[in-house]
Amino acid sequence: NDLQAWAADAPGKPEKADLKVGFIPITCATPLIMAEPLGFYKKYGLNVEVLKASGWAMIRDFALNKQTDATHMLTPMPLAITMGVGSQSAPFLMPAIENINGQAITLHLKHKGVKAPKDMKGFKFAVPFDYSMHNFLLRYYLAEGGVDPDKDVQIRVLPPPEMVANLRANNLDGYLGPDPFNQRAVFEGFGFIHLLSKDIWDGHPCCAFSCSKEFATGNPNSFKALLKAIVDATEHASDKANRKDIAKAIAPKNYLNQPVEVLEQILTGTFPDGLGNTRTVPDRIDFDPYPWHSMAIWILTQMKRWGYIKGDVNYRKIAEEVYLTSSCREVMQAMGHKAPKDNMKTHRFADGKVFDPERPEDYVNSFAIRRT
Amino acid sequence: MTLAVPNETFRAVALSALLLFAALFVWQLASTPSGGGRTQGLPGPAAVATVTWEMLSEPFYDRGPNDKGIGFQVLSSLGRVAIGYSLASVVAIFLGVILGLNPILLKAANPYIQILKPISPLAWMPLFLYTIKDATGAMILVIFMSTLWPTLANTAFGVSAIKRDYLNVAALLQLSWWGRFFKVILPAAAPTIVAGLRISIGSAWVAVVAAEMLVGGTGIGYFVWNEWNNLSLTRVMFAILVIGVVGLILDAGFTRLARAIAYIE
Amino acid sequence: MTLAVPNETFRAVALSALLLFAALFVWQLASTPSGGGRTQGLPGPAAVATVTWEMLSEPFYDRGPNDKGIGFQVLSSLGRVAIGYSLASVVAIFLGVILGLNPILLKAANPYIQILKPISPLAWMPLFLYTIKDATGAMILVIFMSTLWPTLANTAFGVSAIKRDYLNVAALLQLSWWGRFFKVILPAAAPTIVAGLRISIGSAWVAVVAAEMLVGGTGIGYFVWNEWNNLSLTRVMFAILVIGVVGLILDAGFTRLARAIAYIE
Amino acid sequence: MGAFLEVSYVSKYFPDPSGRGMQCIFKDVQCGIDQGTFVTVVGHSGCGKSTLLNIIAGLERASAGGVVLDGKEIDAPGLDRMVVFQNFALMPWMSVYENIRVAVKAAHPAWAQTQVHACVLKYIEMVGLTDAASKRPAMLSGGMRQRVGIARAFSVEPKVLLLDEPFAQIDALTRGAIQEELVSIWMRTRNTVFMVTHDVDEAILLSDRIMLMTRGPEAEIAEVVDITIPRPRSRTSIIEHPHYYKIRNHIIHFLVERSRRCDRPAEAMSHHTGGIHG
Amino acid sequence: MGAFLEVSYVSKYFPDPSGRGMQCIFKDVQCGIDQGTFVTVVGHSGCGKSTLLNIIAGLERASAGGVVLDGKEIDAPGLDRMVVFQNFALMPWMSVYENIRVAVKAAHPAWAQTQVHACVLKYIEMVGLTDAASKRPAMLSGGMRQRVGIARAFSVEPKVLLLDEPFAQIDALTRGAIQEELVSIWMRTRNTVFMVTHDVDEAILLSDRIMLMTRGPEAEIAEVVDITIPRPRSRTSIIEHPHYYKIRNHIIHFLVERSRRCDRPAEAMSHHTGGIHG
Ligand SMILES: Nc1ncnc2c1ncn2[C@@H]1O[C@H](COP(=O)(O)OP(=O)(O)OP(=O)(O)O)[C@@H](O)[C@H]1O
Ligand SMILES: Nc1ncnc2c1ncn2[C@@H]1O[C@H](COP(=O)(O)OP(=O)(O)OP(=O)(O)O)[C@@H](O)[C@H]1O
Ligand SMILES: [Mg+2]
Ligand SMILES: [Mg+2]
């Protein structure tokens, strides 16, 4: 892979210094956003303008139409775009994850009594995009709780920023969405946090940094500088001591346009849950750039499970094509951060199930509720 | 001695077909063939026709809450339009008659009407969602706001422009207020009112699609939104066609009504 | 002997003020005081006035690509409208004159116009985004589509309804094609064309707000969306007011133009 | 003076076109009309004929003076006066039948359907439109439309019939026919009629008495001409009458020459009787 | 026959209102008009007078037959014929001055601005509208508007002037004044004029010769009356002429009685000279 060796080289002058990076105003995008006010882009010789998009379809179209050079994406999106599922087919790369965890199931306060998936039959849920961890985790949670996500509930796509207003308008019973919109519903006093996504799969990938293969190969120096800036910012964000400052940096209208208080609650992990409890979960959202291939394979198994892709899937090949695990490792190491040695690992879920990336097809077939 | 007049209708139909073929041809050229690879280009007429056939052959399927036939989607949009539109029409005609009969009141209310009229119905959406706390209600109110003004303005104008003669005859015959209203004012202003209603149904149809794209759940607008999320251009194009045809039918209904109540002075 | 006529304008203004006060009063009653609790209620007139003052006192600040003053937002929306609208107007008037002068062509093209007209401009958005591959271009095309039809329909109608007399005089005077076009057809149809242009500017303004809510970036529509995301109702209401006032001004411009080119038969 | 319809010192002011002031249309108009007579006002366009007629109808208010009909002062429209309008003023969305029925029902609210129906048919027949009863006004020629207007006016059986240039919008040749019809209907009913026109031939054919109005502003009735040509009259027979052209020339002369001077100081109103003029 | 304007066996068919067939408006109309004469066609509404005039103007095509002007066959409009329309047909968005200027420029494309300006002013003055030159038609009375129409027609100096009921929409009293003006302009210019009207007085006042048309369908010119009353004529003087009322009564009689029968088999066209009729 020609992209693997370059990470160790000294960075050359960026081919393109003025870059546009798209984002959705959510806390997952923290590294990408704060890199601007906190000067990480500048540090690597880049002049980046961050552009807010209204929803993931818009992000996808911005990326495909080359209106942005690189974007904040959901971890399944580069896979889907590369395969041409729910998209025009275009090879995309995902050199780094931005955050792990950081999602939650928020329900309207009128559902205070709801404890488990079985109480949720007939609910109207929203997720930010079909090709999102939010969608797959919600489906996993519901299905493992005995609720068929296609038959027993409605799951619709809604841009994250519009979820709160729709919940308040009773247009939704709940959503599995990104923060700050879970905490915002609590803050506004009509929603409560039913479950953190961490409590489905601790350490699950959420959002990522991605760009087209064309951009990466055409502008290797820019790409490298960008990756370094983001890895740097991600590592900075993962330090819990920085979290309060970060909350202040990303709150203004140009970025998330949210009250600082809400962002602090999320980033520090000390937050009211809307039912009168104050919880302390420091890794409610965490930041780790390392893109495990096994994560990609899990995502592909879920796409297969829910019928988004049909036929045989070469899980491993696609994962390797899109998730630039080794590049990320090299960059992390070059910058003096610790990085895992392996590209894959088994993942353990909160319900006790274990995902073995070597046997994805068996994993798909192990589910009772599936669309294959 | 008399020239055989070439049949105009026939020539128009022929030309119409020609235009259609030309358009389809250009479209076909512009669309990239969706070859062996997965890359979808702009879908061509054939692809859209196939989807149309598929969707229309089973318009009322229901495969769970996330996947319903196009018939259901259109009906749900039409249902919203029906409610918002009828409410707005009743209010608009009522207010319009009052304003039309009172020039000073009309003059007084006019600045507010002029400010409220150009507000994009979608801009109301956040406000309504927030205050009504009901998405369907908010959508209906958005439709209400988008249809109120054309009917109101036309009714007020139609009533205020009723020829003095007709009102004079009503006065000479000493008709009661209701007699005057039903026998003179309403029929005299009817063509203008219906013209307003016709513009309004157009705005309503535009507004419902936009509103459903934003808060949806069901409806043809939501369908477009959903297929866009999936980047299923073929279905988006099919949906655009459906929107156009339904809009055409709604409009045609009002054209008929307009013809029925029209009079020649 | 002659009764002193009470000044109509004065009475209308007084009534207007009265209506305003009544509306503000009802609004104030309906609005929940945004007290200590976090949940905002409906903001009252005072809160909106404060925000209005704040926003208008610094209309042209620039704090990054996603945070600009209201003046920039309005200008950027108006810029898009200007481009899409002018393009559409030129095309629509040109096509309209051709169709208006050729009844058979008009009849042939009519079904397509009727289908394309009612399509919500927002439904075009995904298609345009995909084909043009440029968000601003797509927004401009959405505006183009929303403004094309009223002007086209009015121009075609206006031209086809030109009195035979005027064309007869042009024929008797043996005017050239261009002479006929500029001296007779255009001025004769001008009032109808401008009426179309006026409807179009309204649609354009509605469409740009909707498009910006979907695509984001800059513009008054984006402003509404952004403030909605922050559940900042006060600012949403302020934005609604701005949309109304700008729409009013655009409309007033065309009313003036209409007055300038109007003629009495 | 106590005539059946008594117009006493009626003046009318309108806001003048410039804006501020008021303009006197006519001043101190005064005339009495006996029951069963046909009186016509002839004058130039804009001298205020329609305004005077509207004041009598109650559609317009006099600025000064008053009108008394059959001993009662008039200040609002009423079913005792019906107008035939120059532009017909038929409801275009109603058929001929409905146009007349609305009048009959207004005049006789207590009548049963059959009674109303019979009455409507009677008046439609009177003007010879039985075949066109279900047609809308737009389908009729001008002459036929005004027949409907006349039928409607007669159908409420008013005390006074007010005709405001009823035949001005009908083409010159059919005008004659409908004028003769009006003559014959009037001969049978002998209503009191107040007509306004600027067609001299029409005035002579129909009237018992013609009042000549000067040009406005400040118009006034300057002369009254009694038409003594015996009835029944017809267009062809009347022109053979020895006085016909004398009267006609006199009136035309008045309108062309004398009515121009509205500033002549104190010329007393002159009164002529058909044929004796000078 | 070789008159200046020669209408030979012109017929016109229109699609009939029912839909399918064709209807004969008039058939084999034939007449010759000498240079410098004023000829009028009088007939009932709808008999096809305007259609005939439009055929001569080139605005309408004859179904059969042809029209020859000054030796050249006519099949399209041209600046050698100008029409004065019943409804004036002035461009309402142009001032009086511009309405005439557009005609002058069309007739003389090579002229310089000053020449055009002088010519426009001349014709505006001819009809006495110098003060109103910058006004739009809507601001003018009917009479003034038709003066503009007349000025426009004269301004292109056509070989034939075609007048289509030019005064029908002007109120009866001002009509007289403008008719007299036309008489006096015509006396100076001596254009060839073809006029269409249904106003008998107007026809007698203006014409050298009156053609009487029967009612349609299949209308035809049944009689020609030469008016020998000497010129200059005026409204007041003409009625004193001994033949005036005789001619008038004859024509009215024709229109009321004889024109009704369009089915009379083979009555030869009769020709009368003013005053000598039976
Ligand atoms: N509502 C009004 N306001 C101001 N002026 C008016 C109004 N109605 C009529 N006038 C003026 O009063 C004058 C007389 O009008 P009126 O219609 O009575 O004349 P008329 O004799 O009936 O004319 P015509 O023969 O043209 O019908 C005119 O100069 C007209 O401009
Ligand atoms: N384009 C047309 N198509 C069909 N019929 C027509 C058309 N133009 C005129 N006619 C018919 O031809 C007949 C003669 O019309 P024309 O206008 O020439 O009559 P006219 O003598 O000028 O009447 P008027 O005195 O009312 O102006 C009428 O019956 C009319 O209905
Ligand atoms: Mg009048
Ligand atoms: Mg005619």
In whole angstroms, how far apart are the ends of chain B?
Answer: 37 Å
Name given to the CATH homologous superfamily of the domain at 5-74 and 198-277 in chain D: P-loop containing nucleotide triphosphate hydrolases
Any idea of the CATH class of the domain at 5-74 and 198-277 in chain D?
Answer: Alpha Beta
CATH topology of the domain at 5-74 and 198-277 in chain D: Rossmann fold
Number of helices of chain B: 10
**Rg of chain D, Cα atoms, Å:** 19 Å
Described by strand count, sense and barrel closure, the largest sheet of chain B is:
none
Please summarize the sheet with the most strands of chain D: 7 strands, mixed
Largest interface: B-C, 65 and 67 residues
Bound molecules: adenosine-5'-triphosphate, magnesium ion
- Helix segment tally of chain D: 8
Question: What would you call the quaternary organization?
Answer: heteropentamer
Short overview:
With 372 residues, chain A is α/β, with parallel strands linked by helices. In chain A, 35% of the residues lie in helices and 18% in strands. Chain D has a domain at 5-74 and 198-277: P-loop containing nucleotide triphosphate hydrolases (Rossmann fold).
Tell me what you see in this structure:
In chain A, 35% of the residues lie in helices and 18% in strands. Chain A has 372 residues and is of the alpha/beta class. In chain A, β7, α5 and β8 form a beta-alpha-beta unit. By secondary structure, chain B is mostly helical. Chain B has one domain: MetI-like (MetI-like fold), CATH 1.10.3720.10. Chain B contains ten helices and no strands. In chain B, α2 crosses α10, α3 packs across α9 and α8 runs antiparallel to α10. Chain B is globular and about 70 Å long. About 2% of the residues of chain B have low confidence. With 278 residues, chain D is an alpha/beta fold. Chain D has a domain of 150 residues: P-loop containing nucleotide triphosphate hydrolases (Rossmann fold). In chain D, a hairpin with a 2-residue loop joins β4 and β5. About 3% of the residues of chain D have low confidence. Chains in contact: A-B, A-C, B-C, B-D, B-E, C-D, C-E, D-E. Bound molecules: adenosine-5'-triphosphate (2 copies) and magnesium ion (MG) (2 copies). One magnesium ion binds next to α1 of chain D. One adenosine-5'-triphosphate binds next to β1 and α1 of chain E.
Write the layout of secondary structure elements.
The complex is a heteropentamer, with one copy of chain A (372 residues), two copies of chain B (265 residues) and two copies of chain D (278 residues).
Chain A lengths: L17 E6 L6 H5 L5 H4 L3 E6 L3 H9 L5 E5 L1 H8 L8 E6 L2 E2 L1 E6 L15 E4 L5 H12 L9 E4 L5 H6 L5 E5 L2 H8 L2 E6 L10 E6 H6 L1 H19 L4 H8 L9 H9 L1 E3 L5 E3 L4 E2 L6 H13 L9 H8 L2 H10 L12 E2 L5 E2 L4 H6 L7
Parallel strand pairs in A: 1-2, 1-3, 7-8, 7-9
Antiparallel strand pairs in A: 3-11, 4-11, 5-14, 6-9, 6-10, 12-13, 15-16
Chain B lengths: L7 H23 L14 H13 L12 H32 L1 H14 L4 H12 L2 H26 L3 H9 L4 H39 L4 H10 L3 H29 L4
Helix pairs in contact in B: 2-10, 3-4, 3-6, 3-8, 3-9, 4-6, 5-6, 6-8, 8-9, 8-10, 9-10
Chain D lengths: L4 E11 L6 E12 L4 E5 L6 H9 L6 E6 L2 E2 L7 E4 L11 H12 L5 H14 L15 H14 L4 E5 L7 H18 L2 E6 L2 H7 L2 E5 L7 E6 L8 H4 L5 H13 L13 E4 L5
Parallel strand pairs in D: 3-8, 3-9, 6-7, 7-8, 10-11
Antiparallel strand pairs in D: 1-2, 1-4, 4-5, 9-10
